[in-house]
Amino acid sequence: MNKNLLSAISGAVLLCSSLFSITSLAELTREQIMAVVEASPAIVAVHDKGQWLDLFAEQSKIEDPVGTQPHKTLWDEQTQSYSKLPLDNFYDTFIATNNISFHVKEDIVAGNEVIRDVDITTVMSSGLVVVVPTHLRYKVIEEQGEAKIKRLAAHWELNAMIGQVLGDQAGLVTGAEMALRMLEEQGVQGAMGYLKGMTVGIFDLGKKKALRFAEVVNSGSKAELKNQFSWWKGDVEFPVAGIRYDLDGFDLRRQGVTLSLSELKSAGWYTSARFNLVDQGVQRSGIVFFKFDEYTYRIKQVRFFWE
Questions:
Q1: For the segment 252-302, what is each residue's pLDDT rounded down to a tens digit?
Q2: Which of 43, 91, 174, 249 has CB atoms 3.0–4.6 Å from 245's, for a disulfide?
Q3: Has residue 2 got a pLDDT over 80?
Q4: 81-83 and 282-292: which strand pairing?
């Protein structure tokens, strides 16, 4: 086939794909996206598993917390469809026997993603109360005319939560109940996948590197900024669904920006934080996510969310 014709066909396919993605995204309003996100904790509160599972897309994934083994839908050869059994197991392990409530401090919508800055309070079956500060990331898509959750990633610190549990008088009983339930619902492999969140990741080093990133941005050193990233490559979304910079294009100091971070959390190979910045006299705030390279321990990507 003629090379020019092949090139034209490829270009047309890419264009159609892009237009389809834009159209699909445009079909969901902010209200529709937030409705499905807000429905999740509301349904969790009344313990309606069927309705909760129905919020998720055919192909979807839960990372709670990020860094543990994800729970994602699996292809079922018999039914020729995706099974939500892993999500069902997640519900039975972590939701069914607990009473969970959300205190939402901020919601940020960027494209088809939602960031929620929340405190999650869990009253466990033993009566133990645990409060976990969390940054939630939702990706929402349109599926058969409805908004569905494609991905739910909960950024909270597993080691800190375990510390809360074991630091209470009822902690040993609660810990034993949690372990038995996890083994019953997810088996040894699932339990080991969950415990990975306590041993594998960037942890406090990620917080130090995130704070160093802010220092370097404020200093205006382009060379030192590149040195924070893995192999001097990376990108910065500033903001998400707005502008994506490579490292040569990202120069906040030149734009008169100062950056500060607070309330840092590390989960898996991510560190998240609240940020405040002043951009040419305009103050902005929101949530930023740093993704780290698991080999170099340097930054791979930075994503700023604000509205």
A1: 655 667 899 999 999 999 999 999 998 778 899 999 999 999 999 999 999
A2: 249
A3: no
A4: unpaired
| Residue 59 φ then ψ, to 5° | -110, 105
- Domain identity same for 131 and 28: yes
Range of the domain at 232: 203-305
Q: Is 79 exposed, middle or buried (0-12, 13-18, 19+ CB in 10 A)?
A: exposed
* Amino acid identity for residue 306 in this structure: W
Mean pLDDT of the chain: 88
Q: Which two tokens stand for residue 99?
A: 């009473």
Q: Let me know the angle formed at the C-alpha of 107 by 105 and 109, rounded to the nearest 5 degrees.
A: 165
> Smallest Cα–Cα separation from 114: which of 52, 180, 194, 30?
30
User: Are both 269 and 168 inside the same structural domain?
Assistant: no
User: Whole-model pTM?
Assistant: 0.88
Query: How many residues in the chain?
Result: 307
- Same domain? 34 vs 172: yes
Rounded Cα gap, residues 126 and 168, in angstroms: 11
* Residue 18 pLDDT > 90: no
Whether the predicted pLDDT of 172 surpasses 50: yes
Residue 15 has pLDDT above 60, yes or no: no
- Distance from C-alpha of 145 to C-alpha of 32, rounded to nearest angstrom: 11
pLDDT at 16 over 80: no
Q: Which CATH number covers residue 41?
A: 3.10.450.50
Three-state DSSP at 98 gives coil
Total tally of structural domains belonging to the chain: 2
Single out the residue in 199, 224, 259 at which a domain terminates.
Answer: 199
Q: Which of 169, 128, 141 is nearest to 59 (CA)?
A: 141
Q: Could you give the CA distance from residue 233 to residue 88 in angstroms, rounded to a whole number?
A: 39
Instruction: Write the DSSP string, 238-257.
Output: SSTTT-EEETTT--TGGGTE
Domain boundary (199, 219, 246) is at 199
What is the number of alpha carbons within 13 Å of residue 231 lying toward its C-beta? 6
> How far from 164 is each of 40, 134, 170, CA to CA, in Å?
25, 15, 11
